[in-house]
Structure formats: structure tokens, C-alpha cells
Design brief:
Pfam families: NUDIX. It comes from Letharia lupina. This is Nudix hydrolase domain-containing protein. This protein is α+β, with helices and mostly antiparallel strands. Helices cover 29% and strands 21% of the residues. The protein is built from five helices and seven strands. A four-stranded mixed beta sheet has the order 4-1-6-5, sandwiched between helices. The chain has a three-stranded antiparallel beta sheet with strand order 3-2-7. It is globular.
């Protein structure tokens, strides 16, 4: 098997950030200086399918290994830490998504949760902050097309998407397979005794993100209905 070569991340990243997420436009050093005692950050990406599909979340299964602390076979969302070569945290998030899935970041919707990770089992000091972001990628389409640099690729969102056709390209050195998980699948993970407490805590955060995603869909649906009603009343094409 030929060695894995990291793909080039599409550049430049052009995405409008909500006012609550403008810190993503800063380098990682800015955040670490502003939020001690953390010495590192892990960025996680929550990628959901969009209507008319039933919401599903992209999960990647970690490749097997000999390190008992490496969470081998654990199902996780795309996640990773910023590198010195990343100009901003936003670039780090885009790079992580692209290197692990081959999908292109188009929009950051919101930060759905945070988690403190101990720096080591020996000291127990909390030095790493995990941040989870709900994002949209070009290959899945957007709910709001105006904020995307990839408008010409936004066909799936309007036509309906067979998720099996989404071109997910894994780094097989890190992940062995992917799945589009349903909300009930995560509930089974949480209730199963097969997973350690640390993993089940992350599944709970993912499950909470499902709830937030459904709320966003309901809100945008109501806005679209109001917009269509207003357009109809003015005789404008919808």
C-alpha cells in the first residue's frame, strides 16, 4: 500500500464567522495566552446531513493500535489540534476536516460544546480544551448559501443527497472507516457497557449537538416559510 500523503487544504478559507466565534480568526497563541492554564486545544467538527435527509452525523472509526490510551476503534468526529503552520484557528479547523475526510469547510455555524481534558493521568491538571463546532462543508451543501465560497458546488442541498455518494476520503493511518450516525445510534453507544466513561462523555456531547442541530433546522424552516409568504404577498417568484 502506498504511503498516505496529506492533501493540500483549499485556500484561502473564506467564511463568515458568527460574532461569538470571531476568536477563530486569531492564531492559537492568542487563545492560549487569553485562556490559561490550557497549553493546547483540540478542535472537533460536527458534520450533519441536511434536509430532506434525516439528520445524521459523520463519525470516523480510529485505526487499531497497541497504545491502550489511543482509543483504538473508538468512533469520533473529525478532530485535531492546531499546528504552528496554521495561520489561525479557523485554518486549523479547515485543515483537520480536509485531512481526515477530504471535505471542504464552507461555514462554521456555532460552537456546540467544550470539554476539559487532563494533560496526563499522573498530574490530573486540566491543560487541554476540546471545542466542538457545528460546521458545513461544500460537499454536503449549505442551509444558507450566501456565506459560502463554494456556491457553484451547492447542488446537494437543493436536490437531496444520497449520503453514500459523499466523497469522504479517509487517512487510513488514523481512521479505518466512516459512518453517518443517526441520533438513536449515539444513544445506543451511551447506554452500551462496551465504551469507557471518557468515550461515553464525548458521545453525550455529540447527542447534545443533535438537539442543537434540530433546533437550528426548525428555526431556519420557520424563517424560510416567512420569507416565502412575504415573497408571495409581493408577487415575487419563490
Amino acid at each position: 500500500m502506498s504511503p498516505y500523503t496529506a492533501p493540500l487544504v483549499p485556500s484561502p478559507i473564506s467564511t463568515d464567522l458568527p460574532s461569538t466565534l470571531t476568536f477563530l480568526s486569531n492564531p492559537i497563541s492568542y487563545y492560549l495566552n487569553a485562556a490559561p492554564p490550557y497549553n493546547n486545544v483540540t478542535l472537533g467538527a460536527l458534520l450533519f446531513t441536511l434536509p430532506p435527509q434525516t439528520p445524521r452525523l459523520l463519525l470516523l472509526q480510529r485505526a487499531g493500535g497497541t497504545d491502550p490510551n489511543a482509543f483504538s476503534d473508538f468512533w469520533q468526529i473529525p478532530s485535531g489540534s492546531p499546528r504552528p503552520s496554521d495561520p489561525t484557528m479557523l485554518h486549523a479547523l479547515a485543515r483537520t476536516i480536509f485531512e481526515q475526510t477530504g471535505l471542504r469547510l464552507a461555514s462554521v455555524v456555532t460552537m456546540s460544546g467544550t470539554e476539559i481534558e487532563p494533560a496526563s493521568r499522573e498530574t490530573g491538571h486540566a491543560q487541554r480544551m476540546r471545542m466542538l463546532f457545528m460546521v458545513e462543508v461544500a460537499e454536503l451543501g449549505l442551509l444558507q448559501l450566501d456565506n459560502s465560497p463554494f456556491e457553484k458546488d451547492m447542488l446537494y442541498g437543493s436536490q437531496g443527497l444520497d449520503i453514500n455518494s459523499v466523497p469522504v476520503a479517509l487517512n487510513l493511518g488514523k481512521h479505518r472507516q466512516h459512518v453517518w450516525s443517526r441520533e438513536e445510534d449515539l444513544k445506543e453507544f451511551i447506554n452500551s457497557g462496551l465504551y469507557p466513561i471518557e468515550e461515553r462523555a464525548q458521545y453525550r456531547m455529540m447527542l447534545e449537538a443533535f438537539g442543537l442541530h434540530n433546533q437550528n433546522l426548525a428555526y431556519l424552516h420557520s424563517l424560510n416559510q416567512r420569507s416565502q409568504t412575504a415573497s408571495s404577498s409581493h408577487g415575487l417568484p419563490i
